[in-house]
What does this fold into?
Amino acid sequence: MANIRHLASLGPELDFLSLLNGDSKEGDARGRVSRWLRSGALIAIVKGMYVTAPELRKRPVCLEILANKIFGPSYVSFESVLSRTGLIPEAVHGVTSATVKRNRHFDTPFGRFSYQHLPSIIYSFGWTRYELPDGAGWLEALPEKALLDWLYCAGTVRSVSALEGRLFEDLRLDPDRFRALDRIRLEDYARRMPGATFQVHLPKMLGRYHA
It folds into this structure.
């Protein structure tokens, strides 16, 4: 019972390291985790990543925290951020993230977690840490960076009109919400990203929509 109370106190999203509980022998911890899995106190998500059973949770499972823990380093970005902030109309099933590692996806009991590679020079800025009242937190792109992350992965465009088509037709970006984004932040991020899309066409487009 004491072990179960301790498990409940750790929070719903747990990796193997957080379950060691000071054990000097990893085998002892693995045995305990195996017992919790058999009893249903723990639910396996991917190898080495778990959530506690619903009756042990003091808050709902946070998918963004799971996304950071399942594969890293990573931060939540792309359509997940754009949808939640109303920049695009479609709901996103699962969580989309950026990583410096190769592209990956994981299908889990909590949906699909997708990871898109970004070069380290692009990955290194434009995200922040969000925190829940219990202190657990995750890394997530600011809306402006989530948009530019998506645009980078979508490929180079050759003109402002092609850029508008990419954003407003392909992505279905909401023009009014786009105008409400922080222009200074967009320009700052664009200067740090390579290619004509960001160095030439996006600044011209911002001049039209953020006059």
About this structure: The first helix runs from residue 2 to 9. Residues 2-56 form a domain with the Arc Repressor Mutant, subunit A fold (CATH 1.10.10). The mean pLDDT is 93. The chain has two domains: 2-56, 63-209.
